[in-house]
Amino acid sequence: MSLFDHPDAKAFILHWGEMGVHWGVNRSVAQVHALLYLSALPITAEDICDTLGLARSNVSTALKELQSYSIIRRVHVEGDRRDHFVAETDLWEMLMRISSERKRREIDPTIQLLAELSARLGEDKTAPPHLRERVMRMHEFIGTLSGWYDQVRGLPKPTLVALMKMGARVARFIPGSKG
Known about the structure:
Number of helices: 7
Structural class: mainly alpha
Strand content: 5-15%
Helix content: 55-70%
Oligomer: single chain
Order of helices and strands: HHEHHEEHHH
Number of strands: 3
Radius of gyration: 22 Å
């Protein structure tokens, strides 16, 4: 009996695939990740294909994508020459790796473009004032958000967990806030 035969495992894997689509991740990539995450043992690409009913090319692409996020890795299984794969199971580590890679791919290029546009618009006296103001405000906002992320990312895991559990109560430490 494969893991996918258990109804709750199957429900999780299928749902993770659906959620992946909402997060901008290919359904097959998300399903491969879910299967590896739930698996107690390393799995070969062939077994992933058989379990999920996916084409070898889809699985190969999914494995490369997941490895680029560093949330799965290739492992050696003694006595078997095939590649096997395992997922990161530490949820905080997985979150940090995904957020770091998404920041690198999505936020950093946006900040770079906004910096260039802000510099040009700052010197362009023919640009409409609202265009200059909005682009510069967006640059400042995303730059501030990125700086906050970099600071928070550097905190130890227990501190991050404590902050998360505090939720909105953290506002009481900010002078003048009503938290």
